[in-house]
Amino acid sequence: MNRLAVSLPGLEMKNPIMPASGCFGFGREFAPLYDLSVLGGVMVKSTTLEPRFGNATPRVAETPNGMLNAIGLQNPGVDAIIEHELPWLAQYDTKIIVNLAGSSKDDYIATAKRLAMSQHVDAIELNISCPNVKAGGIQFGTDPEVAGELTAAIKAVSLVPVYVKLSPNVTDIVAMAKAVAAAGADGISLINTLVGMRLDYATGKPVLANTIGGLSGPAIMPVALRMVYQVASSIDIPIIGMGGISCARDVVEFFSAGASAVAVGTANFNNPYVMPEIIDELPTLLDGLGVVSINDLKGRAWL
């Protein structure tokens, strides 16, 4: 019996650990460090219809217990990703989840149709929550009706399950989750970054060229846990939890809040081996908690 195996729509994974989109590229930089097949899945960099060069620099800044970024969805475009990145990543025994972003509804749909032509996509993560682009992204993720319409449109053209990545920068996260679930989402990713900014002490000017950015890292984990807890007790589709995870105990907390799998983001920058270390440590934690399977931990907070 594999004690760490989890089962989600389109994703039968040997363990619930995967990198969050944008924090692992397409895996090429990490492949020389360890076998990517140890991961349950890989959420690749955001994919758009056309190549994007991202925002002007500086676009990353450190914060206490976190990081502020405004990358701006830099990526080589869906055709290059289908031709070069996905076949390369498919050599590893892991699930491939493609993060899909766009500037308009038609933009999203066109990209999803292209992805449907690839045999290497196990699931789509629909990004309606990026705070660092001027068009698209979070504009679709703050209105339940708009988010539901886009979710239904992507479901209509996708050949694989669709997970919708929600923004924490809303008043009612449960209303957003219910809207995309009603529109046919197969699962939800929670959470993307919180909108923030920093100023240069000497000049008083914003540190990031984009002025504002997305805050990630351990500083946001309590917010992420609260939202996973609220959503998990309100809907019946699986949640991939993320937001500040940096150790195996954090994973246990997310499962206890109701997550069915997790993604590790900023911690990869501090310790590139953090995900294999978490996978190795989890069985010992399960022994200490007196449970056989990691799935036994799911929803302990609200049962």
Task: Give an overview in words.
The structure is a single chain. By secondary structure, this protein is of the alpha/beta class. It has a single domain, classed as TIM Barrel, CATH 3.20.20.70. Helix content is 29%, strand content 19%. The protein is built from eight helices and 14 strands. It is globular and about 50 Å long. It starts with 5 loop residues before the first strand and ends in a 14-residue tail after the last helix. The model has no long low-confidence stretch (mean pLDDT 94). Its EC number is 1.3.-.-. It catalyses: (S)-dihydroorotate + NAD(+) = orotate + NADH + H(+); (S)-dihydroorotate + A = orotate + AH2. InterPro entries: Aldolase_TIM, DHO_dehydrogenase, DHOD_1B, Dihydroorotate_DH_1, Dihydroorotate_DH_1_2, Dihydroorotate_DH_cat, Dihydroorotate_DH_CS, Dihydroorotate_DH_I. It is an enzyme of class 1 (oxidoreductase).
- Trace the largest sheet across and list its strands: 3-14-13-10-9-8-7-4
Structural class: alpha/beta
Helix content estimate: 25-40%
Strand tally is 14
Strand content: 15-25%
Q: Number of helical runs?
A: 8
- Helix/strand order: EEEEEEHEHEHEHEEEHEHEHH
CATH top level assignment: Alpha Beta
CATH architecture, by name, is Alpha-Beta Barrel
The main β sheet shows up as:
8 strands, parallel
Number of domain units: 1
Given as residue ranges, the uncertain stretches (5+ residues, pLDDT < 50) are none
Shape summary: globular
User: Termini, distance in Å?
Assistant: 25 Å
